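task queued by scheduler; priority normal; single chain, no ligands, no partner chains; default sampling; output format set to structure tokens
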Amino acid sequence: MASVKLMQTKDGKRFYKISVSRGHGLTSYTERWYIPDGVTSKRAIEKALRDEVNKFEIACGNGEVLSRAEKKEKAAQEAAAAAEAARKAAEEAAKIKTVRQYATDVFMPAKEATLSENARASYQMFIDRHILPVLGDIALAEVKPAMITKLILDFQKAGYAHASAVKLYNVLNGIFDMAFMDDSIPFSPMLKVKRPAPRKDERVKNEADKSLTAEQLDYVLSCLEQEPLKWRAFVTLAADSGARRGEICALRWADIDWKSGTVRIKHNLQYTPTAGVYETSPKNGKVRVVDLGEDTIALLRELREEQAASCVSRYVFTQDGTAEPMFPQSPTRYFKKFGERYNVQGFHPHLLRHTSASLSLTNGADMKSTADRLGHSEAVLLRKYAHSNPDSIRKAGQASRDALKKAQNA
């Protein structure tokens, strides 16, 4: 059972210290909770505090929280491991001659320590398919800016999207920047390579193009009435929760709280050719609780009954007729076919995540709550999802006019 104590910082800011006992002789797990901006009434504060206490207790019970001593020990271990990795990398760097040797023996091993499996596989693909065939056998110090510029231009001429060209540029920059920092080369040739611009015939999507309007989302949901139950539930859940594709594929029945109408996002199913299908934690490593609408809950109940008739699985979304979880790439393929059937341009799972965030923000939801719901920081949410539309632009203008009128009438 958690205990709560009202305290304040040296500068007078109040917060609640939440403590969960670890047993006799052990220091408690603790967390500070500051009252969110805009929450002023006693009842609202007490409700928000109870929700935070419940989440913290659950996280402690799942072993997701570390004590202060454990945090210090973990930080010390990570620092020691990083120092040892840096020492070994420096030793290996002294032996490196070619781009292939450096990318394979120094750059990727260093990246593997910090990247997720999915990101690691992406880096490795760019290196194996596009960088090493062109620059692999050239001495690291002899790579010229013109060589890299030509590589990127040829990549664009081959028809790859602008975003892919930028990713190639970033991987190249990472390799040569690391080589410069560890003194493998006297300077980075990337300093004289321009970041790739879009091709003349290529339209780069604006951020606002990456989400649906409320009317477009309503059309998508109406089209679902003609689709199989499993996909009706998947698409509706994605639109309602804003969860990532892999998080929904990894969802288990035990994660759904039918009484409160919420779901705990605590797993993420991924696939790479090297690792196959594997389960990891959500992208930011934090478990979050997301509320669902009545229609979504009703579809999930219906799906549970249908699934029970053919198999018993702990997963909500499974491969047809089996207890195995849905393959992580399956939703992308389904969404593409759905978009072609109903003329929904660029329809893919992440579009619904963008849409959930965008509609929430442009219809009055606060930034912090929306960020927590999607498992993002506020800064990332603002950059990636806070799209403007005609209605929100008009609201912004009206808010400015209302403020002026209030001042004039004062």
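post-processing summary
- The longest strand covers residues 2-8.
- The two ends are 51 Å apart (CA to CA).
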